[in-house]
Amino acid sequence: MAINLELPKKFDSTVERTHLAAEHIFRPISRKYDKAEHEYPTELDDLAKLAKQGRGSEKAADSSSSDDGPSVNGANMRGLISALEMSWGDVGLLLSIPGQGLGNAAIAAVANPEQLEKFSDVWAAMAITEPSFGSDSAAVSTTATRDGDDYLINGEKIFVTAGSRADHVVVWATIDKSVGRAAIKSFVVPMTTEGVTVARLEHKLGIKASDTAVIRFENARVPAENLLGSPEIDTKKAFGGVMQTFDNTRPVVAAMAIGLGRAALEELRRMLDEAGHEIDYDRPAAAQHATVAEFIRLESEWEASWLHTLRAAWMADNAQPNSTEASMSKAKAGRTVTEITNKAVEIGATAGFSETSLLEKWARDSKILDIFEGTQQIQQLIIARRVLGKSSTDLK
């Protein structure tokens, strides 16, 4: 039985529209904002308006009939495709588009219907990491204390992507430290809330078009209904509710890595062609030029990453638990994109190390894709627990 790995035709418009934006908006200003860290890319304002219109038409398409038959899913796959194509243009600029923050994915993953409606038009950053921990999300120490109809949030969050630009931030905080991870909840906090301050902006290795902020919360008062999902503490479920966020966002980060990896592979192919090294898929790799053999190997790793990511998104769209697959896609794609971009710089030699092309920038940008949303080591730990049937207590 043949397996068709082509994307459904209903996604064609998404691929075309987002690739055009990446090619004609992102690529021309990519170097400009790499050199102008913390300067807001004003060129993205019109793109955000078009993206909002496009999302409205896509929702209608997903709920109507197409050549593939009636469809009621596809939101995760569409987001994945958009991230891939946009990242082919520039990862940092993708992370700077108004209305498309990582916090929006958290809202989509956890919010109830009323909250989805209430926060449908916000631009939300996501604040998880703290000075005392990195990828161990269960170590959250920021507190949310009930005070009448509100919660008072206190703590400090670091590495908040779009933290100084978004109008809201989704904050992970504990409502009862004595209970442990089961008490960790996520809250939607307007950035204009009294007690919320941006302490500083980070200077980074890559994705410089995107700002990364430190945010402090000092008795920041938010309505109780801004707690995403249920306020009940379920010790059996632990903090699975907020962790659903990662099941949605990790495949998207994997897709970002795949888009950037594809850009680097295309540039490497162009350089090999210019050097007269033909890539022949009908001949054994070992019988071809060493750089061609390396290209074929890297391309096969890229394909494997893409298939992992497709599966994770498909499972999410079909209401299948995908925590393992989400981590697999993130781990594979994150590791692969750093290898592809660094090898491209190495093979490109002078051209790869200079600013004559975007290769050296892509190598710098790629590293974060193997770090945020859970490092390579964290993903491998999660996968091992799932495969071996171990708990976080059994396998640390």
UniProtKB/TrEMBL annotation:
The keyword Coiled coil does not apply. One of its GO terms (biological process) is fatty acid beta-oxidation using acyl-CoA dehydrogenase. One of its GO terms (molecular function) is acyl-CoA dehydrogenase activity. Residues 242-388 form the Acyl-CoA dehydrogenase/oxidase C-terminal domain. Gene3D superfamilies: Butyryl-CoA Dehydrogenase, subunit A, domain 2, Butyryl-CoA Dehydrogenase, subunit A, domain 3. Its cofactor is FAD. Residues 52-61 have a biased composition (Basic and acidic residues). It comes from the Bacteria. It catalyses: a 2,3-saturated acyl-CoA + A = a 2,3-dehydroacyl-CoA + AH2. GO terms for cellular component: cytoplasm. Keywords: FAD, Flavoprotein, Oxidoreductase. Residues 125-219 form the Acyl-CoA oxidase/dehydrogenase middle domain. It holds the Pfam family Acyl-CoA_dh_M. Residues 52-74 are annotated as: Disordered. Belongs to the acyl-CoA dehydrogenase family. This is Acyl-CoA dehydrogenase. It comes from Gordonia alkanivorans CGMCC 6845.
